[in-house]
Fold this sequence. Notes:
- It is a single chain.
- By secondary structure, this protein is an alpha/beta fold.
- It has helices at 2-9, 22-28, 38-55, 69-79, 91-102, 120-129, 151-160, 209-216, 227-235, 246-262, 265-284, 312-321, 350-362, and strands spanning 11-12, 60-64, 83-88, 106-111, 135-139, 141-142, 147-148, 164-168, 187-191, 203-207, 301-305, 324-325, 327-328, 337-341.
- The protein folds into 2 domains: 11-17 and 264-362, Aspartate Aminotransferase, domain 1 (Alpha-Beta Complex); 30-260, Type I PLP-dependent aspartate aminotransferase-like (Major domain) (Aspartate Aminotransferase, domain 2).
- The strands form 4 sheets. Strands 2-10-9-8-5-3-4 form a 7-stranded mixed beta sheet, with helices on both faces. A 3-stranded antiparallel beta sheet has the order 11-14-13. A two-stranded parallel ribbon has the order 1-12.
- The two termini are 35 Å apart.
- Bound molecules: pyridoxal-5'-phosphate.
- Pyridoxal-5'-phosphate binds next to loops.
Amino acid sequence: MVIARCTQCMKLFTVGPVACYPVVLEAMGRQMVSHRSKEYVDMHYETVGQMQKMLETKNSVYLFSSSGTGFMEAAVKNCVAEKMIVCINGSFGKRFAEVAMANGREAVKVVTELGEPVTPEMLGEALDAHPDAEAVAITHNETSTGLINDLPALTKVVKRHDKLCFVDGVSSMGGTEVKVDEWNIDIMFSSSQKCFGVPPGIGIGSVSRRALDVSASMPNKGWYFDLMVWEKSHAAGKGTPMTSTIPQIAGLNAALLMIDEMGGKQAYFDLYERRNTAIREGIKEYGLDTFPLKGYESPTVSCISAPDGLSGPDIYNAMRGHGFELAQGYGDLKQATFRVGNMGWIPDGYIGEMLDALGRVVS
Ligand SMILES: Cc1ncc(COP(=O)(O)O)c(C=O)c1O
């Protein structure tokens, strides 16, 4: 009851889980079906087809019963025997390297200053220095610093060196353009609780034939995240190999249908851009600015530097007092910043109200 009370009164500008679209909540509230029933299987493959359209890919799409991090683990266990390169410009890049090392793989880290992008030159140098690396991991949108990397430019470098390419698109997929086939991305993953406005519970990812071929001969990769196990069920028309997170998948299906009805993915990206611009322009009125290097600001998460005399947590807590749940700064930026997400269900009018409250807090 406490949770129900909070979420009803707080207006969410979180960075995930975000507020869910009403059509999503309605779809999730329906009675259960078996994950082996025709009803489920039809919904599963419709959702997979919608995701392939969103990602512009012919690759298989799996819906893991895990959060997005499950896909990091799967990428490492299935596709890297010894060594990979990990691009790091914040906490989630760091996590990818931790996942690799926890699985006994060597992670060569390409690390930037916080708020700065990984450049094609930096990645090229690392690949030249480590020709035996099997794969490269890139965080598309680094949620912790509110920074978006230039993914098409980075994936070109990976392709030139003929390595497997893994992309963490947890806070970009669905919120901005991703072209999996054109950009040669072998594993591209996200979570349900970000741009799609669905509760947590699904790791959504596309997997290339090349990644599957590498997985086929990889020893000791476990079972739950074995991509061959997932491909077998997918190709056999069974959906998931184990019990599916049916309510979340119904919610994702409804969200993707809603996006179609809005005019398709570009219309949805445009909506996100309008929200993001309104927030970034609005904070300027109060003398505030975003943290990352100009030109690399995230289209889904604004990481804002706290003004003199106030810490990020001060602002976060004061905004709660006004009925707005923002997000605290993350990791090393906890004190110096706060974050405002523009993902999921944000009704018209909320951004103006949130900015008015922010003005009162910082003035
Ligand atoms: C960029 C990025 N990667 C990975 C994750 C982890 O995702 P999950 O919590 O769904 O495992 C997050 C979560 O915020 C994220 O923002």
